[in-house]
Amino acid sequence: MHELPKLPYSLDALEPHISRETLDYHYGKHHRAYVNKLNELIRNTDLEHLPLEAIIRATAPLTGRPSPIFNNAAQAWNHAFYWQCLTPLACTPGVAAAQAINAQFGSVEEFRQQFTQLALNTFGSGWAWLIGNNDGKLEIVSTSNAETPLTRDRVPLLTCDLWEHAYYIDYRNARAEYVTAFWKVLNWDFLESSIREFQQSKNAA
What we know:
By secondary structure, the protein is mainly alpha-helical. It has eight helices and three strands, in the order H-H-H-H-H-E-E-E-H-H-H. A three-stranded antiparallel sheet has the order 2-1-3, with helices on both faces. Helix 1 packs antiparallel against helix 3 (68-84), helix 2 (52-59) crosses helix 3 (68-84) and helix 4 (95-105) packs across helix 8 (188-204).
């Protein structure tokens, strides 16, 4: 059965940008609920022993409303990935990340502005992503609700959770303030690693 992954930092490590209270609810209650519900839904089914990625791909809707299994599996995966994108440690863009971002967007600052704008323009609940495409290029996209780039065979490199439970305690309905805070705790080292792995996989293909 699936387990709630351990956070890579303490609950108060992201303060003052993201509070302990937010992580208590966001990680301790919302994320945990997705994992628990998924385990309940897949118990004694063919999906029970599959990894999250396989469950997501097996249950991704071709049309119509997503199933509860997909929603909970995708949200469990999206959140586990999101926590890796944050850090209390000060870090800056690495060589691979800077080169790839500059090549695609012109500059790190331009990437930041485009990502921020997409996050602010995403309607309702969802996610903002930096992904790697099949052609090796980077792209900024948003998904609604539990949707994830995994269902389109794209490689997630970075995400920002845009559900209100990610920021309402700290910023109420001011998503823009939350996105500003997101950049202050962005884990550039994780993005560097993600981009290097993506590039290596493309070079090996």
